[in-house]
Specification:
5-stranded mixed sheet; Rossmann fold; 40% helix; 12 helices; alpha/beta; single chain; 2 domains; 7-stranded mixed sheet; 19% strand
């Protein structure tokens, strides 16, 4: 059985290691020490953890002030509350001011499934990638999460990192090197391209294996950086394969699929299918059930790719 991991553990371990080497690193939280898994950080660096309570707007404003004072604040909060409640502060105090703040949206997407629509964070990528100066990253597994956190600490400027609590397998090799703005090709193929990030990358890989059984070789791209996006990888996919299927744990409006489509339509238009949450409030249910409910199963992804290929066949 494939071992599954909580990316919050990799996030927390990386943060502690970074803080040991750099006294500028601090955390700012909204009474979410446990759910952000930074208990160990607080125990080792009690003077470098600021808990503002349930006051997300204050949290982001304080982080911006700390950044102005030379600190490197990592803001840790449930993504649904961080991005919705404090969006003005994210825009003005962090992005407009170009403050060196790392916004860590924890338990993102559908991870809080049983708590319902108030806790689903399926708009966060659309909101954050629309803001100037904001770098947006969605790691897919513990290896990429650890490297993304390290990259964030050394990157100068505002950043939003989407960290899920949904268990995922390791999909990257131990020699994988994460680079901001660079896609990772996890599987080669010249028939169709599947593009994903975060928790659903594994489902793209599973769909590619199902396609191979039909004689279709699918290229699988992990597009962890949503902004700045890897235009070169997308253009190559558009020119070298017959179409692109995107899948995301997010609304289909304004997220990964939209970002890819913006590149495709202005460079080399090809047929696309954008799979995700179809512009509705997601119901209550477990995260895996919700992904299946919205057609993000390997079989449904395979079928979308086959339909796209068949639509391009000459009559």
């Amino acid at each position: 059985m494939t071992q599954l991991f909580d990316c919050r553990d990799a996030f927390a371990n990386a943060l502690v290691s970074l803080a040991r080497a750099d006294r500028r690193i601090v955390t700012v939280v909204n009474d979410s020490i446990g759910s952000s898994k930074i208990t160990n950080f607080g125990e080792e660096f009690p003077g470098r953890l600021v808990n503002v309570g349930i006051a997300e707007q204050n949290m982001v404003g304080i982080a911006a002030g700390l950044a102005n004072g030379g600190k490197i604040p990592f803001v840790c909060a449930a993504s649904c509350f961080l991005t919705a409640r404090a969006l003005e502060q994210i825009k003005v105090d962090v992005a407009y001011s170009n403050a060196n703040v790392k916004l860590c949206g924890m338990s993102s997407g559908l991870a809080y499934g049983e708590l319902g629509p108030t806790h689903h964070s399926i708009e966060d990528l659309a909101w954050t990638r629309a803001i100037a100066n904001m770098t947006v990253i969605v790691p897919a597994d513990p290896i990429e999460t650890e490297q993304a956190i390290c990259a964030a600490a050394h990157f100068k400027g505002p950043m939003f990192l989407r960290i899920s609590r949904m268990p995922v397998p390791i999909i990257h090799a131990t020699d994988y090197h994460f680079e901001i703005g660079r896609a990772a090709c996890l599987r080669e193929g010249n028939d169709i391209t599947l593009i994903a990030n975060g928790t659903v990358v594994i489902r793209a890989l599973q769909a590619a294996m199902l396609l191979a059984e039909r004689g279709v070789q699918a290229r699988v791209l992990n597009l962890a950086t949503v902004r700045p996006i890897d235009r070169e990888a997308i253009v190559q996919a558009a020119t070298q394969t017959s179409g692109i299927v995107t899948l995301e744990e997010h609304t289909i409006f304004g997220g990964l699929g939209s970002a890819v489509a913006e590149v495709v339509v202005t460079t080399h238009p090809v047929p696309m299918r954008i799979l995700g949450i179809q512009g509705v409030f997601a119901p209550t249910g477990s995260a895996p059930w919700l992904l299946d409910y919205f057609g993000l199963t390997p079989i449904a992804i395979r079928d979308a790719a086959l339909e796209l290929i068949e639509a391009r066949q000459p009559v």
